[in-house]
Amino acid sequence: MELSLTPATGHSRPRQLSLWDRHWRQHGACAGSDTNLFFADNRSCGQEEALEICASCPVRTECLAYALDERFPYGIFGGTTPAWRRDLLHRRPHVTSWRGLLSRARAEHMNRPHRTTTPVTRTHRTQSAAHGTHN
Question: Which of 23, 26, 33, 71 is 20 to 30 A off residue 16, Cα-Cα?
Answer without folding.
Answer: 33
